[in-house]
Amino acid sequence: MLVPAAAQERVSVGTRPLMENGALFLAAAKGYFKAEGLDVDMTAYRSDKDVVDALALGATDFAVVAFTPAAFSYAGRGLIKAVAAQVREKRDYDGNEVVASNLAYAKGLRKLDDLAGKSVAISQLGSAFHYQLGRIAQAKKFDFSSITLMPLQTLDAMAQAVGTNKVEATILPAPYARELMLAGQAKLVGWCSEVDDHQLGALFVNKKTIDGKRATVEKFVRAYRRGAADYAQMVRYERGGKRVANMRTRELATVIARYVYPGRPLGEAAATVEAGAFYMDPQARLDTADIERQVEWYKAQGLIEKNVEAATIMDANFAK
User: Can you give the pTM of this predicted structure?
Assistant: First the structure.
């Protein structure tokens, strides 16, 4: 039953218009927050750092955002806490794809092991793509420093760079990678999920909000988890590895598409979301083992302070 509008509590959440944040959009569009008595004011930011900066400063109460050095640093200092999961890379599920330029592929870049010594486009130092390259190097046992990193800021720039042979490889979300390959401008090298599971981000809360409005946080997390359970229904597979697509998955993708691709024809946008959705834990549980790995890796790269500990980043009480 919905709580009367006059009785609803107003809360603010920052995020970015990306399909990775679809659990939040589903929870908002389907009235799950309203059912908990929450009136959610959602703000879209231009970068992940902008999202966590706003949260740490108290401009928002909540944020659904990718892990970054800034997010880990703020959480390590006790300003924000991760309380539930965003999407993740999971073995045997679609996710980010490693693609090679046509020239590099012709010269022998055919598998993940071959990334050693190559130039690879990423968005930014400290991004998920940066971490995923590090994990590939560890798994394939080659020197990560042999890779020439090319931070290009945007997915469009990364795709263009590999498509025009300006870099030898890049990591891209499935819709970008598939568009390049269909156009004959890149070749598939492998999936990041082949290497290991990877928690891409989280639902974060400002620590002052947790301390002063714990019941409100509990309500928000409950509603968010309902959105996560819906999102998880989009990523299922038939025998033979074909992704399930039906009226339910298209309905969910259409809701998310309105937030992510507002300027595109809705049917086309929904098809992109449906084909490119990441795995989501249906209970929005954090992959604590991977978060611990990420923290140690970021510290080893000098991207976060040495005193940051994974245990301080999460508030495990909301996982119960």
Answer: 0.89
Taking a C-beta distance cutoff of 8 angstroms, is the pair 35, 3 a contact? yes
Q: Is 162 left (phi over 0), alpha (psi -120 to 50) or beta?
A: alpha
Residue 249 contacts residue 272 (beta carbons within 8 Å): no
List the one residue out of 238, 244, 195, 20 whose CA is nearest residue 90.
195
Copy the structure tokens of residue 38. Answer: 């929450």
HSE of 62, CA atoms in CB hemisphere, 13 A: 29
pLDDT in tens, 243-300: 667 888 889 999 999 999 998 999 999 988 888 889 999 999 999 999 999 999 999 9
> What are the structural domains, with CATH classification, of the chain?
5-90+198-319 (3.40.190.10), 108-194 (3.40.190.10)
Strands ordered across the beta sheet of 9-15: 38-44, 9-15, 62-66, 201-206, 80-85
Q: Does 182 score more than 50 pLDDT?
A: yes
CA atoms within 13 A on the CB side of 30: 22
Task: State pLDDT tens for residues 109-139.
Answer: 999 999 999 999 999 898 999 999 999 999 9
Q: 72 vs 186, 253, 274, 283, 293, CA distance in Å?
A: 34, 30, 30, 22, 12
Q: What residues are paired with 198 via a beta bridge?
A: 89
Euclidean distance between CA atoms 229 and 121, whole angstroms? 33
